[in-house]
Amino acid sequence: MLSENIKKLRKSKGLSQQELAVELNVVRQTLSKWENGLSVPDADMLVSLSNTFDVPVSSLLGETISEKEADTIQSLANKLEIINLQLAQRKESRQKILHISFILGSVLIIIGFLIMAALGSSYLTWTSNDMETAVLIVFLHGIEWLFIRVAPLLLIGTLIGVYITRKKY
């Protein structure tokens, strides 16, 4: 029913799919999916469609609403609003945790660089007469070599993560 109403109202306004898509800030393929019943617009888009066509959302959906149903719909709308607020809060807390994780990762990498700079490669001056010391020297050198090559990339990644997950006002 909704798909037919969108198509009928679009044609009655003399708009092509492309023109209506531009007006609604969606791609033409999205509008085509709505008109073919392959997907449905979300609540905000239904309001935009009703404003564009100058019809109430209820008639866009093809329904007539009585007084009793209006009260039920209002209570459902209130419940949906509460759920949307809860989802938004959950998303914000996840973003905050991710942001703090990126900051912590950046700090740990910088601390690693500072520790390596302060200690230097003192293990290279050790005498490697016995096999265990030689293995330890190779192991420490391998860790240092890997850290020096990988840590800058990780630092850049974490700094980008900090920037992307920052709170935008």
Automatic annotation (TrEMBL):
Which Gene3D superfamilies does the record associate with it? lambda repressor-like DNA-binding domains
Q: What is this protein called?
A: Putative DNA-binding membrane protein
Q: Where are the transmembrane segments?
A: 97-126, 146-165
Q: HTH cro/C1-type domain: which residues?
A: 6-60
Q: Name the SUPFAM superfamilies for this protein.
A: lambda repressor-like DNA-binding domains
* InterPro entries in the cross-refs: Cro/C1-type_HTH, Lambda_DNA-bd_dom_sf
UniProt keyword annotations, A-Z: DNA-binding, Membrane, Transmembrane, Transmembrane helix
Report the GO molecular function annotations.
Answer: DNA binding
